[in-house]
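cache lookup: miss for this entity combination. No prior model stored, computing from scratch. Input as submitted by user K.M.:
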Amino acid sequence: MEQSRSVLAPVRDVFRAVVVTVVPEAKQLDESGWLALEALVEDALAIRPPALRRQLQLFLRAIEWLPVVRYGRTFTALRDEQRGLILRHLQDHPVERIRCGFWGLRTLALLGYYGRPEAAYAIGYCPEARGWEAVQG
Amino acid sequence: MKMKRCSYDIVIIGSGAGGGTVAQELSSLCRDGARIAVLEKGPKLRDEEFTGREVEMATALYEDGGGFLTAEQTMTLAFGSAYGGSTVVYTGTSLLPPQRVLERWNVPGLSFADVEQRARKYVAENNVHLLEESLLNENNQLFVSGCRQLGYRVEQFPVNLKGCRGSSLCNLGCPNQAKQGTNRVQLPRAEQNGVEVVTRCEVQRIEAKKVFARVSDKAEGTKGEPSSWEAGDYEIDAKVVVVCAGAVNSSALLLRSGFGRSLPRLGRGFTCHPAFIMVAEHDRPITNAVGHPKSFYLDQFAESDHFLLETCMYFPFTTAKAMTGFGEEHSRFMRAFPRLQMILVLACDEVHDHNRVTIDGNGRPVVHYRFTPEVIHGLVQGAITSAKISFAAGAIRAHVPVSHSPTIERADAQRLDQIAQNPDFKPGKLSIASAHLQGGCAMGSDPADSVTDSLGRVHGVPWLYVADSSLFPNSLEINPYLTIMALADRVAETVREDMRSLL
């Protein structure tokens, strides 16, 4: 039942492959890290219209199969630099809708990765309600 | 479910800069027996629930978590949905309305002197002042230094703070209750005087002196207090209705209530200062995530090149999203977070026929927005000017999102002028966002080209008023909160004067 409500479950492999291309540090995530990342993305998608959630799945499936034409392999089977070229092509695509689709997917990847408090601390972002007092000890 | 019924003299829809002000200004009527309710769609958070955690707070305090998408999906809009509206999540910057802009608006019956005088009342009420120098962080000081080296006329923002500790978390709701938004000043006073504020109450439509609303239960695991009203559908009789739901939701509410049939300009004239974040890296850590984030601005190019610059400091996800690109080049900037200087570039947009608020088949707001050549020029010039300021302040590299190669090293700074000749401005590639939403219910004298008169009275509907940024007939070109409060103050005074005939 939980599976059927998940947007990412049917396209998890390609989504993770996109995330590690967008944020290379995501390769270091263990399974609990991935689950936290995906939970943030699922929460964000839950308040979006069902049509948008279906479009995301469709877009991810297209990303998985698009490289077969050029490389003879699916996205998940490509090397890192080849994946980067495919995503760059989408980012700069002449059709605005496709650029927007990639922007949305990239945003979800960044939300999942940098929305986790662990990632924020890892890059040196340590917010403190006490502000100056915390800095000055 | 059975519709619940109740009755008020005055119903105010929304509790932000407009609704909070109207509530306070009318609250003395409660002493004479008037019944006044503020209906707020969002929740009221307890002080201890302001944790400063980015995604958690954005989800709790903003509509769509701060990522309301335009119909074209090329820009996101950030607006609050909470007790206090967007005043909970702004940085407290409080500028007086510019005379040149109000004169250009040319609304019959609206004088600059009157608006300015009322704005000054809220300057005093909200403790607006300039932060002392010892509280300014290096992110802000570097902006000043860069601007001065380039001969630019940088100005300090007056801010409405009391007891600011410098958490830098303003946009996620102040964890120290220092920001003097309507949630801290006007709404509590209104409640003390007898105004009832009902949270989690979404108004669905307005009919002749009736408001239809739905109150929701607090969902498990979410922040905020439960509503003071039982969950369910309500039909509320109201002798006066004041709509203060913000530029997007006020227009949408009036459209789904059918007022668009007699008011062809309803929803039109939407402007929003489209903006993006510029990031530059220094070779040493700077104080950026501590201290007030938005202390200075530069507006000398507003007239000539259609852009403003403001200091800013955002959170990891917002910053990551704001930069273009991905992969190692993007990650390198993110890993340099403690060394990042940030500047917000805002375009001064003008009313354009395409840019408007409509509703979809379910009555939900849809914002249509295309970037005009002037906006594109403003964003490109603003990005280049920001990079120059950062380099003048000592940055070693800058992220220039309108460049084909966004990372510009200090040694290549001369490339910046070439970028101006051949910018890479592709809607859908750039992360453009807006938080200054204006227009949709413009003031004017003629129902053919405006929605209300200069006092916020909806044309042809004597019991219905608007009091928020949707009243602006064109862009304000500065941060709008004090101007919204000043206009709301005028509307409240008008309601008082009209009361005898309306009640």
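stored under new cache key. Residues 2-136 of chain A form one domain.
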